[in-house]
User: Fold these one by one.
Assistant:
Number 1:
Amino acid sequence: MRGAVAKYERDNIDTDVIIPGQYLKVHDYDELATHAMEGLDPGFHKRGAKYVLAGRNFGCGSSREHAPIALSGSGIEAVLALSFARIFYRNAVDGAFLLPVEIEEEAYRSIPDGAEIEVDIDAGTVADHTSGRTHRIKPFPGIIAEIIRAGGIFNYRGDGAA
Amino acid sequence: MHEISREGSSSLLYVDRHLVHEVTSPQAFEGLRMASRGVRRPDLTLATMDHNVPTRGGLPMADDTSASQMRALERNCAEFGIRLYGMGSPGRGIVHVIGPQTGFTLPGCTIVCGDSHTSTHGAFGALAFGIGTSDVEHVLATQTVWLEKPRTLEVRVSGAPGPGATAKDVMLYVIRRLGAGGGAGHVIEYTGDAIRSMGMDGRMTVCNMSIEAGARAGLISPDGTTYEYLRGRPMAPGDYEAAVAGWRAGLHTDPGAEFDRLLEVDVAGLEPQVSWGTTPEMTCGISDMVPDPAEFAAGDPAREAAARRALEYMDLEPGTRIRDIAVDRVFIGSCTNARLSDLREAARALRGGRVAPGVRAMVVPGSEEVRLQAEEEGISGIFEGAGFEWRESGCSMCLGMNPDVLGDGERCASTSNRNFEGRQGAGGRTHLVSPAVAARAAVRGRFEAP
C-alpha cells in the first residue's frame, strides 16, 4: 500500500464535511466518491491520494457509513489520525472500507501533505518515502485487528479464528 | 445488559431494542437479501421515517432519491415483518422521540440504532449507542453487536442553573468543559442534583448530546421521574409495578461506585449558552463576547487555528457581543429539543411577541404525537399567531438532507445538536441554543436571554 498523502491539519473533522447530508440518499458508491471531503476540499476525489492524514477525533458526528464509503471510493486505503470518533472507526473496520490507523503526534507533525508513504500493518509502521523516515503506528485494540484480518464484521466469527 | 461472550476487551452484546430509519438501513436490508438472511427479532425492531420527510403537508420530497429511500423502508419492513411508523401514521416521528414516547425504550435495555444520537435513550438508564449500516445489518441478522469495553466517566453536575437556563444550556456547558472529543472512548454517567431535578425531556436533551463530546453513550440511572414517565406508555411492560420493582432493585448507581474519570461541573447560576463556532465546544454564555482565538486556544496552536477558521466560516469578529449577533432563521426542532416541554418552554419565552421582520422562524415537533398534543394545548396557535411556521414532525433543518435547509450565508438560531460547517445546508451558519433562547431570537432578531 504505497501512495500519496492528503494532509489536513485539523482536529474534529466531522462526517458532515466528509460527506455532506444532501448525499445521504445517494446509493451509488462511485457517485458518493465524487463528493468525498466536499465540505473541506471539493477537489479531493481528483487528488489521487491513497491516504488521509489528520488530527484528533477524525470522523466525529453522524453514524453515516457513507463517510468511509465515500473516502474508500475515492481511493483512500487508510486514514491516519491522532484519534478517531468511535462510530466512524467501527464503520471503517466493520464494513471493511478502509483502515483507521492511529498515529503519534510526531508522525502527524513530520509527514507533509503530498508525501509518498507506505503503511505496514504487520510491522506496525508507516514509512515516509519522501523523507526516508519511518514512524510507529498504534496497534489495533481488542478484536479490531481480527475483524480487519477477517475482512469485516460478517466474516468475523468471534472465536479468535478469523 | 446481556453479555453473550467476550474476546479480550470486546463484548458481544444482545440487543434488546433496535430502532431503524430510512437513511442508514437500505444497504443493511439489501445485504440480508443477498445473503438470504432474515431478521432475527422483528419483534424487537421498530422502524420510522424521519430524516428525509418533508415537514410541510403536501410538500414534495427534496428529490426522487428521498422518495425512493422512503419507499425502500416500506418495502423492507413489509418483507421482513418489522413494525413501521411510516408516512401518515400517528406513531411517526424522529426515531429518538418515538422510542421513549411509546415505551419501546426501557431502563436496563441495550439499544442501538443507525444514528449517532441514539445516546438519547440513555436518559432511561439504558445503554444506547449509535452504529453504522454494517452493524445495523449485523444486528438485524443476529440481534447482537460487538462493543469494545468503554471506560467510564462520571459527569457530576451540581447547582441550580440561573434564570432562563435549561437542560440544553447545562449540556452545552458540559461539552464546553469536556471538549468535542473529551468523552472519546467513554460512556458518560450523569449524576448530581442538577440532573436529578430535570424531567425526562431535559435528561434526554443531555444524553442526546453525549456524542457531541465524543462519548460512546451517556446515561442517567433511572428513578421515580423515569418510572412515572413510562407508566401507561403503550409498549411499557404489562405488569408495570413488578417491572419498576426490578428496575429499582437493579439499576441504581451503587454508593461509592468508581469511575475511570470524574468531571465535576458546577452549573449554579449558569446563564443560557450560545455556540459561536463550528463544533459544539465552541460555546459561550449569552452575555459574553465572541472570544479571541488565541485566548480560546489557551496555548494549543491546532485549537487556535480551528477557532480562526470557525470565526471566518461563521463571519464573526472576536469581541462581538453575542447579544449583537443578528439571525436570519430560527429552527426549533430535532431529537435534541423537540419534545413537548421544549415547545412549551419556547412558547412561554415568546411572551406574546411576534417574529421580528426579516426573520424566518419554524417549529418542527419531534413526533406526530408531540404535534397533536401541542395543537390540543394551544401551543401551535401561539407559535402561528407569532408568525412561526408550524410543521409536521421530522429531522427537518437539523441536517440539511430534506427540503428544510439554510441558504448559503444564512445565520440560524437552532435548537439542534451540531453546528458543523454546512450541517444545516451548504454555507449555513448555526448557533446552538435552547428552545427558549431560540424563541427570543425569533422575536428580537438577535440573541437575548429568555
Note: Residues 409 and 428 of chain B are 5 Å apart (CA to CA).
Number 2:
Amino acid sequence: MLCLLFFMFSNNRNAWLLLSPTILILIIVGLVPFFYVLYVGFFKWNPLAVDPSMQFEGFGFNYRRLIFDDVFLASIWRSIKFSVVTLFFELSLGFILALSLLSSFPLKSFFRGVHTLPLVIAPIVVGSIFKLFTVQGLGPLPHLLKDYFGYTLNYGLNADQAFWMIVIMDIWHWTPFVTLTLLAGLSALPQDPYESAKIDGANNFQIFTYITIPMMVPVLIVVIFIRLMDSLKIVDEVWMLTGGGPGYATRFTGIHIWKEVFEKRYYGLGSAMSILYLYITIVICWLLYSVMVSRGKNED
Amino acid sequence: MKKLIIAVVASIFSFSAMADGHADWWKKAGAPYAGTVLQGVAENTPPGQFAGEVIAKEFEALTGIKVQLENTSWDQMYDKAIKDMEANSGIYDFVYIEQDIVYDYLNRDFLVNITEGLANNPDLQAPGVSLDDFTTFIDYFKDGSGDVFGIPMEAFIKVYLYRKDLFGRADAKAQFRSQYGYGLAPATSFDQWRDNAEFFTHFCAEQGMECWGTTVQGHTGHPASTYEFLESIAPSFGLYNWGVNMDNYQSCVENGGQLNGGRAKAALNFWTQLLPFAPPEALQSTWSEVGSSFAAGRAAQGWVYGENAAWIATDAEKSAVVGKVGVMLPPTAPGVMTQAASGNGYIGYFDGGAYGIPHSSKNKEATMLWLQYVALNDHQADWAIAGGRITHKDTYADAKVMAVDEQADGYFSLMRDTGFLYAGAPPFPFHGAGRGAIDPFIYSALAGEMTPEEALDGACQALDQVMADLGYQG
C-alpha cells in the first residue's frame, strides 16, 4: 500500500516500480511477522491450556510477568556477558590476524584460505563438530587434556566449562569474519598519514594507536555491531553442544525463548520475550553507537 | 546395515507374496493413488528405519504409492510435525505419535479418526488387517469412545540390561564377595545396583578395561534425563504420574502431590549417586548414547530402552557385547511390584509410538492404505527383529522372533509376560510444558548444582505454576 502511494504521488515512478518487488518481499518476510509477534505478545496464549484460545488480559500482561521472571532476566545477563567476552576476543584476535595478513610471508594465501573455512560452515554443523571433538568418552580433546595436563573437561557437569566452551566455539567460528572485514578496511586506508608519521619519527606503536585505530573506527563500528547482534541471538551451536545446560549455565536468551515457545508452547509469553529482547538489543546497540560516535567526535 | 539391505532386496522380490496373500487387492486399491507421494516424519529409531527402508518399498512396489519417510532426531521430529499441524500446511501425510504426546495431539484435534475414516470408506478397508491383532498398546491411541487415531508401529519396555560375562567372572565374584559380604549378581534391589556399579567401576579399572559400573541417561541439557527420571527411576521407587495428584493437578507435597515427596527424593538421590560409577559420557547421554555405550561394552548394567536391547544383544555388526547380554526387570522398591500387578501403579515405561494422519494431510485415503499396510501381520516378525519392538499379539509366537528371543536372553518373552507391569506416560495434555518446567531442575541435580531435595522442591513449584497457568488447577 505504502509502495502504491509512493508510486502514485512520486515523480520518479519507474524507480518505485522497480523497487516495489523488493519492498513487497521485505514487508511480507519482515514487517508482517514482526507485527504478528508484537500482536501475539499482548495475549495469554498456550494451545496446551484448558482454554487454548488467545486471551487478551491487558497490553502489559506478559511484559509485567517478564520483569519478575528471574530465569529470563538471567538469560539476558548471560547473553550480554557472552557477547562482551566473545566480542573482546574476536576483535583482538581478528585485528592481530588482519595486521599479520597485511604483510608478506610464505604460504600466506593458503593460510588465508584455511583461516576462512569456519565461516562457510553452518552454525549447527559447528556445534556438531565441537560436540564430536569434546564430548566425554568419544571426543579426543577430553582424553588429550586428561592425559597430558591432568585436566578434566566435562561440560555436562561443569557450568563454567560449558560457558567457555561455547565462547571458544564462537571465537573459532566468527574470528575469520572479523579478520576479513578488518583486513579489507586496513587495505583501503590511505598511505599518506603513515608516511608523514614515519618522517616525523613515530614508532610502530604510536602509528597503530594514533593513526590506524582512529582511521579504522568506522570499520570497527560495523564489525562490532554485526558481531554483537549475532552473538546476542546465538541458538544453533548452543542447542547442539549443551542444549542450554548444565542447568541454566548456557541457557542464553535465544535458547530460553525457543524452549518457552516450542517446548512449552507459551506463544504469547514467548512473543513478548522476543519483542523485549529485540528492544534491549536495539538499546544496547544504540548506546554503543552513541559512545563510539561521541568518542570519535572528541578525538577529531 | 547388511541385514537391512538383504531385507530390502528380499522383500522387493517377494512383494507379491506379501500383503497376507491379498496382493491383488492392494494393487487394485492403490491404483487410483498410483504416483502419489506420501510424506511422513518420524524419529530415527531402528523400527523407523525398517519402516522407511523395507515396508515403504514393498508398499510402493505393490501399490505405486511412494512413501517418503523422513527419519530425523527426536527434537526435529516434534518440531516439524507440530509446526506443520499447527499451521495446517499439509506437508506431512503421516506423523509419528510418541505415546506420551498423544494426549496433546488429541486435545488439539490434530489427528484424523482412523476408525471413522475406514468405516466411511469401506473400499479402503484392507483384507487381513484387524486392529484386534494389536496388543493392548493400541489402547493408548484411542479416544474415550474407543476410536483409533494412530496405528502402533513400535512398542517396547525399558529393561534392566547387564553383562553376563562380567557378572559371571570367577575373579569378579570372589572379589565382590570379599568386599561386600554377599554374592555378585544382577541387581534386584537398588542397594545391590549401587554396589554392583561401584564394584565394576573399580574392577574394570584394575583390569585395564574401558568399562564402568552402570549407565546413566543423564544429559544435562536434553529432556532425555527428565524422562529417565520421571518414567523409569521414579516409578520403580513408587512415584507415579510425575507425582501429580490427578484430582487437583498439584505436584508439591503440601498441596497433595508427590513430586517432592520421600519416594521422589529417594529416587533422585539413588540416581545421582550412580554418576561416579557411570561412563564419563553419561552427562551428555540421551537414550541413543546410552544404547551405544552399552553396546560398546562400556557399562556393566543399566536401564536401556527395549528398542536398543534386541540389537545390542544380537547384532554383531553394531554391538561388541553380542551373546553377553542378560535381560531382567529392573529392581523396584518394596510394594511397587504389588501395586503394578494390581493395576495401581507401574514399574517403568511402556514406550512406543504410532503413525497417525494429520487433518492437514492432502492424501488421507492413500495414507489410510499405507497405515493399514504397516499393520499387516506379514512383516511384523522381521520388524520385531530389526527394531526390538512388538505391536501384534501373534508376533511373540513367530519362529524367527523366538529364535532371536533366545539370543537376547528372553527380551521378547519378558515383554510379553511382564508388559502389563509397565505403563505409558500419564494422560497429560500439557506434557511438553510440564516436562519443560521440570527439566532445568533435573539438569541441576545431575550437575551437582542443587541437591536432589532442592531440585525436586523447585521442580514441583515450577510444574504447579505451569498447571496453574494453563488452567488445570481450576
Note: The radius of gyration of chain B is 23 Å.
